[in-house]
């Protein structure tokens, strides 16, 4: 047990062992409850193969959100230790004011609305494992006459405790908070209901209520159920007319047990579907990464080939390989093609250098080509060639050297 943080919580010793449990049920008890009052519910969930984490919020946690946040942080830490070993489906079960004392703060921490001590990875682990909610005589509105009545009137099985001191404390606390902090209490009330509605997508919801329950009015709970249905939640409402507050299990044990069993089975199915979806998403991410890598390699190879192959648009289909000296990545492909086309249309002229070069140039290059009869012919391979009437013999450098000496 961990008192002093807005309440206490513990793993029920009567629940299923950790390695054999089908899931975890977090029981948020009502104020001034003890272990004996929660034992029948712990035995119910244990008989169905679920392990129970029991939370008892203090009175101040109902009105001081800091205390409720501290208690919720401790509950999430215990769940993280359990779910790190083996992720299992988790169900949140609220009894009477347990949703206001701690449960709604657990939902806020998992949603990132308020800050806690755990990491985002741990919050994600717990949030992915929560697959259902159960409300027994809950939720209860504490910022109203109903809340004051709840604090004054003891719950079922709590008649042995002194009611005079509790009634006095309830009146002082309720009237004092409503008088000193009316805006803050109203803001907490709106935040409380908004948080419960935001948890509609966690999984199936089971609600127990009674028309004879003045602490948890039936019309408030039925309105809560209708709103969840409008949000697309799978809701099952069990309503009786003769059961007391938090006494539905004692009065209708068979129906109560069957409804809980069905909801836990739905939670198991939800957890399996969610796990399969998570695995498929992980596999899809791996396939996407592999495909993305292959495409990146292909694009890199294509870009390399394009840089090595520049096609010049000319009748003779010449190919030019770029040199490291004239390579410029900032130039556009169209400008490169224009440069190659300009190079073909205006070839560099031959300019002799030196005395010997001038002599050879005068001998080898004729100055007058007028009168030459240039006729197109066809080569043996079928390609057109140009023939001249003046046939030049094979090049003889000795003869030209002799002529130059003359």
Notes on the protein architecture:
It is a single chain. The protein is built from 13 helices and 11 strands. It is an alpha/beta fold. It folds into 3 domains: 7-283, 3-Layer(aba) Sandwich (Rossmann fold); 310-345, no CATH class; 355-405, no CATH class. It is globular, with a radius of gyration of 44 Å.
Summarize the structure.
The protein is of the alpha/beta class. The chain is 51% helix and 14% strand. Strands 1-3-2-4-5-6-7 form a 7-stranded mixed β-sheet, with helices on both faces.
Topology:
Layout (H helix, E strand, L loop, with lengths): L6 E5 L11 E6 L6 H13 L2 E8 L7 H21 L4 E6 L2 H14 L8 H10 E7 L8 H8 L10 H18 L1 H17 L6 E6 L7 H13 L4 E6 L7 H4 L1 H56 L1 E2 L7 E2 L12 H13 L9 H10 L9 E5 L5 E5 L8 H9 L1
Parallel strand pairs: 2-3, 2-4, 4-5, 5-6, 6-7
Antiparallel strand pairs: 1-3, 8-9, 10-11
Helix pairs in contact: 2-3, 2-4, 5-6
How much of the residues is beta strand, in percent?
5-15%
Low-confidence stretches: 157-161, 283-292, 310-330, 386-391
SS elements, strand count: 11
How much is the average pLDDT? 75
**SS-derived structural category:** alpha/beta
What is the count of distinct domains? 3
Instruction: Give Rg in angstroms.
Output: 44 Å
CATH class of the largest domain: Alpha Beta
Characterize the quaternary organization of these chains. Answer: single chain
CATH topology of the largest domain: Rossmann fold
The largest beta-sheet arranges its strands as 1-3-2-4-5-6-7
Share of residues in helices: 40-55%
Cα(first) to Cα(last) distance is 121 Å
What coarse outline follows from CA principal-axis ratios? globular
Assign the CATH architecture of the largest domain: 3-Layer(aba) Sandwich
Tell me about the biggest sheet? 7 strands, mixed
CATH superfamily of the largest domain: Alpha/Beta hydrolase fold, catalytic domain
């Amino acid at each position: 047990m961990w008192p002093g943080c807005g309440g206490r919580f513990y793993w029920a010793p009567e629940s299923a062992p950790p390695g054999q449990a089908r899931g975890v049920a977090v029981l948020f008890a009502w104020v001034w409850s003890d272990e004996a009052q929660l034992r029948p519910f712990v035995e119910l969930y244990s008989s169905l193969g679920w392990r129970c984490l029991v939370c008892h919020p203090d009175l101040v946690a109902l009105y001081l959100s800091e205390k409720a946040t501290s208690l919720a942080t401790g509950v999430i830490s215990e769940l993280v230790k359990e779910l790190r070993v083996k992720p299992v489906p988790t169900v949140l079960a609220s009894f009477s004011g347990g949703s206001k004392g701690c449960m709604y703060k657990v939902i806020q921490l998992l949603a990132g609305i308020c800050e806690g001590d755990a990491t985002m990875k741990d919050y994600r682990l717990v949030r992915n494992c929560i697959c259902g909610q159960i409300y027994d005589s809950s939720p209860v509105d504490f910022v109203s006459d109903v809340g004051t009545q709840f604090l004054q009137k003891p719950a079922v099985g709590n008649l042995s405790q002194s009611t005079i001191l509790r009634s006095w404390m309830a009146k002082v606390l309720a009237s004092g908070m409503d008088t000193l902090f009316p805006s803050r209490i109203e803001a907490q009330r709106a935040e409380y209901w908004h948080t419960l509605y935001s948890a509609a997508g966690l999984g199936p919801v089971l609600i127990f209520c009674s028309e004879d329950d003045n602490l948890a009015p039936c019309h408030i709970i039925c309105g809560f159920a209708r709103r969840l249905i409008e949000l697309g939640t799978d809701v099952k409402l069990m309503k009786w007319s003769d059961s007391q507050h938090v006494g539905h299990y004692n009065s209708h044990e068979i129906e109560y047990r069957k409804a809980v069993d069905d909801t836990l089975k739905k939670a198991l199915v939800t957890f399996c579907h969610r796990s399969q979806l998570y695995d498929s998403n992980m596999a899809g991410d791996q396939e996407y990464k592999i495909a993305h890598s292959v495409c990146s390699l292909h694009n890199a190879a294509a870009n390399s080939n394009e840089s090595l192959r520049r096609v010049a648009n000319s009748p003779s289909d010449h190919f030019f390989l770029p040199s490291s000296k004239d390579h410029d990545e900032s130039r556009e492909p169209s400008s490169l093609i224009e440069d190659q086309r300009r190079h073909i249309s205006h070839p560099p002229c031959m300019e002799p250098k030196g005395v010997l070069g001038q002599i050879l140039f005068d001998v080898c290059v004729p100055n007058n080509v007028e009168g030459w009869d240039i006729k197109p012919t066809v080569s043996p391979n079928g390609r057109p060639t140009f023939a001249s009437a003046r046939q030049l013999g094979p090049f003889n450098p000795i003869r030209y050297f002799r002529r130059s000496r003359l």
